[in-house]
Amino acid sequence: MHENAKKNRGLVVGITGASGSAYGVKLVQTLLDLGFTVHLVISNAGWRVLKEELGWETTDREAALRKHLRETAGNWVYHPIADIGASIASGSFLAMGMIIMPCSMGTLSSIANGASDNLMTRAADVMMKEGRPLVLVPRETPLHAIHLENMLKLARLGVRLIPAMPAFYFGPKTIDDLVAFLVGKVLDNLNIEHALFKRWGDHDEQPGE
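Structure tokens predicted for Flavin prenyltransferase UbiX:
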């Protein structure tokens, strides 16, 4: 098992209805490959985007997850978004942190204004009140003043904001490369080791050459 997973208490991952569901799926698959337990929450709009963007059959949601989240070293637990009494809704549930990827502006606004009206926003509120890492990956363009004000409010509270902005310095060849880069940046912010992209300064030369 990956060294990070040995001390694992589980990570919470949220997927909303913002475009970019491939990011969330890649994140979950990577965490599972590394041996983590993933507590997964998907909004109703998030399920629609999984269907529209990735072609998932979402009539039976748990069956869809079993089909697309292949067997790995880790485990996943699915929590319906309406289950406000789920384990992750309580601060007594020990979790390493939470990532919402992608994060819609609606979800971001709810978190910024303390509107814990579903399991995803409640779990995010728990991370903030317990002082645990919360990483949001907003995906929207252009941004208006309310979006920016909500992000500034969260940043001042210690929430990590990693916009879904691709990079090109590492020489991506495919869309999968761009998705993996952003997932890697998220994992970097949680100090989780990975090999999802080539870092700036990495090269194939041997020492002394």
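The longest strand covers residues 97-103.
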